[in-house]
C-alpha cells in the first residue's frame, strides 16, 4: 500500500452536507423507548423459568411420594422403633411374647427359668460356622454337650448339598435347670446369627389338673359300682395328663441351626429424603428422555432448517458481492 | 484511532460523532452524493428503530452504523440494478452522477474510483477513509479480517494501477 495514496485518499474525505446534518439531528433527536419484551429478554427469562418448573415438578413428585404412607419402609421403621419385648410367662396354652435378641447381644440375656413354676421353655439359636468340616465338628460337639448336661437329642437334620456348603438342624431336649448353661456353651460354637427364646407358663394348668383330680378322688371315695369305676378312670387320665405336662416342663426344647451360608446384608430401606430424591431424579430423567426423543424426531427438520438458513445466507452474501462487483 | 472508544449515551450523540464517517462510506460505495445523502439519512432512521439491539460488547457504534449503512446501500444498489435492467433514465442518471461527483471529488480520484467496483470502493472506504481495523471492517462486510485485508490489498493495487504516480501530489 502506497503511503502517498493513502494520504491522498484521506485528504479527499468530504464532510456531510449541512442539510444532511440537520436532517439526521431531527431524526435522532427523540430515540424511541427501549422495547421491554425483546427476544433475548424473553429467552433469558423463559429458559430459567422452564428449567425451574421442571425441577420443581420433579421435587414435588418426589416429596409427595415420600409422604405417602403405603410404603414398606414406613412400616419397617415403625417395627424397628418398637422396643424389644421382654419375655414374660403366661398361662399354659398361650404364646408368650417372643424375645428378639440381636445377634450382637450376649447369650446370657436368655431368660432364667422360674424355679417353682412349671414352664414350657423353648429356645432357638442360629450359628454360622466356617465350612463343612466345622459344621460336622460343631454338630458333634453340640450333641456331646447335650448329653453331658443331662439332655437328649430329639432330631438331627444334616445336609451338605455342595462342597464347603451345608446346614444342620438339631433339636435338643435339655433339663430346664441347665438350659442357660447349654445356651451359653452352644452360643460359643459359632457366630450367632439369630437367637430366640419363648417361655410359656404351665403351672396354672397343672394346678387346675391337681384340683380336679382331688375333687374326683373325693367323689370316688363316696361312689359305688359303675360310677366309682368311671371316676377312677377319669382320675387316671388326668394324672397321665399331669405327668405329661411335668415332663414337658422338666426339659427345655432347644432348636440349634448351623449354617455355612454368610447371611446377605439386609436391604437398606431408604429414608424419606432418599426416596424423594430418587423419585425426583427419576422424573428429571424421564423429562430428559422425552426431550431427547423430541430432539431426535425433530433433528432432521432442524438440520434442514439450518441448512436452508445458512444456504440462503451464503447465497445472499454471494449475490451481494456480485452486485458490488457490478456496481 | 480505534484504541479508545468513548461511550455514547444516546443515538443523537452517536449520530453527531459518526455522521461524516457514514456519509463517506456510503459515498464511496455509491459514487452518488445525492444517493449518499438519502442513504445516510435512511441509515440513521433505521438506527433509531434498532438502537435497542445495539450491543457494545459486539462492536463499536461506528461499526454498527456502517453495517446498517451497508444494508441500506445494498438495497439501493439492487433497486438501481433493477432500474438499470428496465433501461429507464440510465443516461440521465449517469450524467447527473458525473455532475455531482465533480462537486465532491477531485478528477483524478473520480476517474480512479470510477474504474473500481463497488466492492473495491467499499473496502477502501472502510479501511482507509474510516480507518476501521480489519476486525470491524470484516464485521461490516461479513467476512473474516484476513479476507478483508486481502480484499483491501487487491483494491488498492487496482487503484494504484489506475492512478499511477503522476496523480499523487
Describe it for me?
The complex is a heterodimer of chains A (327) and B (169). By secondary structure, chain A is an alpha+beta fold. Helices cover 57% and strands 17% of the residues of chain A. Chain A is built from nine helices and six strands, in the order ααααββαββαβααβα. A six-stranded mixed beta sheet of chain A has the order 1-5-2-6-4-3. In chain A, β3 (152-162) and β4 (165-175) form a beta hairpin. In chain A, α3 runs antiparallel to α9 (272-326) and α7 (203-222) runs antiparallel to α8 (225-250). Chain A is rod-shaped, with a radius of gyration of 46 Å. Chain A starts with a helix and ends with a helix. Chain B is mainly alpha-helical and 169 residues long. In chain B, α1 runs antiparallel to α2, α2 (33-50) crosses α3 (61-86) and α5 (107-114) packs across α8. The longest helix of chain B is centred in the middle third of the chain and has 26 residues, at 61-86. The chains are: A alpha+beta (327), B mainly alpha (169). Chains A and B meet through α1, α2 and α9 of A and α1, α2, α3, α6 and α8 of B.
What are the SSEs and their pairings?
The complex is a heterodimer of chains A (327) and B (169).
Chain A: H1 3-11, H2 18-28, H3 39-67, H4 72-81, E1 99-101, E2 119-128, H5 131-148, E3 152-162, E4 165-175, H6 179-187, E5 191-201, H7 203-222, H8 225-250, E6 251-259, H9 272-326
Parallel strand pairs in A: 2-6
Antiparallel strand pairs in A: 1-5, 2-5, 3-4, 4-6
Chain B: H1 11-30, H2 33-50, H3 61-86, H4 90-104, H5 107-114, H6 118-129, H7 134-141, H8 145-163
Helix pairs in contact in B: 1-2, 1-3, 1-6, 2-3, 3-7, 5-8, 6-8, 7-8
User: Which geometry of chain A do the CA atoms define?
Assistant: rod-shaped
Evaluate the radius of gyration of chain A. Answer: 46 Å
How far apart, in Å, are the first and last alpha carbons of chain A? 24 Å
How much of the polypeptide of chain A forms β-strand, as a percent range?
15-25%
Overall structural class of chain B, as computed from helix and strand content, comes to mainly alpha
Task: Report the order of strands and helices of chain B.
Answer: HHHHHHHH
Widest sheet of chain A: strand order?
1-5-2-6-4-3
State the distance separating the first and last CA atoms of chain B. Answer: 25 Å
Helix content of chain A: 55-70%
The averaged pLDDT of chain B comes out at 81
Question: How confident is the prediction overall: mean pLDDT of chain A?
Answer: 82
Order of helices and strands of chain A: HHHHEEHEEHEHHEH
Number of helices of chain B: 8
Give a count of the beta strands of chain A, DSSP E runs of length 2 or more. Answer: 6
| Helix-strand makeup class of chain A | alpha+beta
Low-confidence stretches of chain A: 71-105
